[in-house]
Model the fold of this input.
Amino acid sequence: MRPRCSNLVLFLVVLLYLPASQLLAQAAQRALLLNLNGEWKFSIHGHRLKMITVPSTYLPVGGASLERHFILDAPLAGKRALLKFAGIVMTAEVFLNETRLGLYGPYTPFNMDVTNHVKAGENHLRVNLTDLGGFEPWGREWVTAFPRYGGIIRDVALEIRSPIYIDNARLDYTLTQNYKGAECTLNVWLVNSGTEAETEELLAVLRKGQEGREVKSTVRADVGRSHHELRFSLDSVILWSPESPGLYELTATVQRSNGDSDTFATFAGFKEFKTRGRDFYLNGKKYFLKGIFRHDIYGERGHTLTRAQMEAEIADIKSLGCNFLRLGHYPQHAYIMELAARQGLLTSGEPPIFGLDQKKPQVVEGAKFCLEGLIERDWNNPAAAFWIIANESGTDPEYMKEMVAFVRNLDRQRLVTIVDNTKLSEENVPWKAFREAGIDFICQNAYGSAFDGYYAKLEKLLPDDMPFVISEWGGTSNVYSNVLREGRYYLERSSLARASGPRIAGISFWEYQDIPMRRWTEEGLLHWSLVDVDRQPYETYYALKSLYTGRQFLPPRGRLLVPSMTEELSRPLGPERVERYPGYELIDLSSVVNSDRVIGELKTVSPLAYPERLAVGKVAVDGLPYRLERQLVALSQNTPTVRIPIERAASELLFLGHVCFNSIATKPTQSFPELPYLSEGFPNIEMPTRLKGYPQAGEFGEQIGEYVLVYDDGELEAVPLLNGIHFADYRLFYGFSPIDAVATATERVLSYKGDYGAKSYQMRLFAYRPRRPSQKIAELRFELNNFDYVPLLAGLTLKAYEPEWNSRVERVGNPALAGDHRRSEYESQRVRSDQGCR
Done:
């Protein structure tokens, strides 16, 4: 049955933004909401694979479609229908009832008015997602957040609103009377979906506890979107700070003359966070940032954390003695921001602009998309302290000018900065460009600067009119004593210890938790952190807590003090299970394997990129016997055909491999050893032309080659082999990130580990039933049609022809016709469900 959501429920206007806030209770009666979370169909280019829960996160597959049906019980009757997504990755093309609604970027909310496309009764919603790249005008290269994921990672809903509704509201203010009062302006954006302007009453309520302030105004709601201001003064306010996080509830209601109304609800707070000379000032007092960097990732859940996980994590970060939380390298969940406001943590937000060319228009447009959604979502949140416009991408003057102006047009209350990691000297300091662009303070990721002398040199270059923040530190200091040593060095040179001269205004430790990064360790995790992926603490956790709280915390006895580096990925099963399905015999490929020669002929390819550590000899894979040589069968332009002797009739052929070699760069760097996938994380490293393999290169469904069965009577039977359907990239990583390299008609049956780091590879199983099973096959030709591909075949096994076996297959009504490349579940000696070959 199709998932059914037949009842409209009374809910909050801003549920997608603030899913748990009790401050929104006053808006509960104002909007009707149809929750579209739940089970969605997951497919790749029309090939349905499974059901998937939304919201959720999956490893990148190149691109997928998620779709579902929902039922709207009654016509809209003059109301408006808004389709609301709280966040996807990486990019989304949305269709409702086969009408294309638009293209949208990652992480931040986007809304669509679908009044003219939704209908009473059944509706069909489809979202086409890309996860390894972007779409124009941004292009692939701007999406560099790591690790990469795919999915509808946050809530989806259809919201039914009044014909005149509040689209958003922003509270601007200036603190007065020695921070006791405030001059306020509530900016309200109304949407009038009718054909004529209307005069309406606008009511705003700002409340804390039992005390509140109401402001009314009569406004003209012009057709379309219009902006209105409500100005008022407050004689006294409760200030927000990390030490005393005072919050207000804020509602704005438009009341129509016919009795219809619409309410926007959120929370707000009053604070002043400014720069003065080399220092920060919070509510008039000098303030030092003690921070930590956080990724919005948890274990195997990716970006989709539970509320309980988020609540426990923010409470834990607060207990470390932090007053600042850097939320990067992409916009994070709105509930994290709400928790930061309640717990008392200043925050920053940033777009996924990392290591990119700031002169490229698509980079600028991508940054604007993410920052606009983030700022408009969080501009009332008092925890938000400043916005970061890029990370480790340089400090291009024109980019900084354009982005600072863009941010200030959205939010004049908060500071703006850029994070850099350039080694500065007298010749390249960017302070003049910072001032001309309007950058408020300096942020540098200064790993090891306490030990290599860099900070001592930098002190002489720091200007008097801008604070300096170390936005990432720690890194390889992943033992108790080193964290204390480096942290103390910075604190001794901070505004806490120095009243004059060069000093540090804030520090932010990299980072809270382990994250997946394929190039770093044996198990593919970056351990420059306090806790593992499941939030179990390392010894660094207790070191940072000691540093930030000023009290000594020692690791408990028996705790894992440093990360384990010994985890192994799964290997092929041993030969003792070969007889699980009797009647299958392996084909000896030892006379035709050739991959050493073929790969060696590809001049752009690194030897490190070759599939290492493949098991040698007789093995069982998925219960079937294979003989795996140290080499594989490979095709290339110089070797377009390999002939494999068969000399027997076969009811079924099963091919192990069905992966494509994909060339990658190996240019070494000064900082890291030569790694074949380093360049995909750092675009400035030389990248040769890539060979193809789904999902990383090549069109889905593009023909790679074919198997040609040559029967002993001379008849030929061709089996076309297609990219993404029969063959996928042999790697299970892309740059920093693990991926899920899928081929929709073949089943992954083997994953194995490379010789260096966390490189991991796959082999896939493809089953084919010849059209003439009783006729002897003289040979099998493996032929390459497209020289952009280097297909690899590791092993071949077959079931010799048995009339009784074939008769049983036909009797159960197997829908896969003889010769079709797909299989379905059937009764035989090998009773099994081929989940990967639907």
Residues 164-259 form a domain with the Immunoglobulin-like fold (CATH 2.60.40.10). Residues 87 and 107 are 4 Å apart (CA to CA). Residues 361-378 form the longest helix (18 residues).
